[in-house]
Amino acid sequence: MFVDRVTILVRGGDGGNGCLSFRREKYVPRGGPDGGDGGDGGDVVLRAAEGLTNLAHLSHQRHWRGGRGWHGKGSNKFGARGEPVVVTVPPGTVVRDRDRGHVLRDMKADGDEVVVAKGGRGGHGNAFFKSATNRAPRQFEKGFPGEERWIVLELKVIADVGLVGLPNAGKSTLLSRISRARPEIADYPFTTKYPNLGTVYVDHDESFVVADIPGLIEGAHAGHGLGHEFLRHVERAGMLVHLVEAVPTDGSDPVQNHAMIRQELAQHGAALAERPELVVVTKMDLTGAAEARDRIAREIGRDVLSISAVTGEGVPRLLRAIQEKRAEVREAEAEAEAVAPPAAGE
To answer: What is the separation of C-alpha 272 from the centre of its chain, rounded to a whole number of angstroms?
Structure first.
């Protein structure tokens, strides 16, 4: 089961109570107050951990609570701090406060952490309140409650390359050809119900992660066909590989199919439409595919690549083109950082 969005309730542990106590020992006529403070409650911490691919492990446990702080004791013994609770999530998880709507943290890298519910402070014992004018205080504090909130966890897969296109455009077949990923493949639309990731090893020194995004349909930006659920997984991809079926089995026009996907990307977010993109015509082993490729290139006014994931035709060239495009993106990013004005205070 693939789960990429969950809502959970987190609550920090309550603080322990302070102690009301006086020292009483033989031969010590003036013992004085010796009630210790209570321990602080444990925090609820989210931590990104490699090896997790989705949020399914959180779908069956919606309440997380930190340990309660121990109560203070006599002889100035302070209570122990409550045990923190660490909730692991996959890298790429966006943590958002459900009620206020703001983002608490974008967990992009392995080891990223955020405290989502702070434990309550422990109460002071009566020893804390003693003074020159209050030598036998009888006041003490109870522990404070921990912070509580509902949070929304939303996974956006982290990949270098995102494969986009209509259902049945050949994305899953291509992913299985260039990586060890084994997505479900069949001759009907919407075989892919959730994103699949695969690592492509170009040589010993270079590799990149490819995400197979479930097929988009017209109106995806408005939520049609789980469009929002699919499109958000493309947001982190450094570049897009747009697969266009040369001879669509449903008889549609491949040029219009390309334009429709481009429109959906633009309406989901302008930055997504401006992402570096390679257009790849697929299923070149079919009759009439060559003529369709030439027409697609002519009418969209740009160079296109062509492949057959079944026979392997054009796949090595596509991998080289992805390498070159990624190098161009890295170079452009480096130049942009070099000319960027220094931040305030630097």
So the answer is: 17
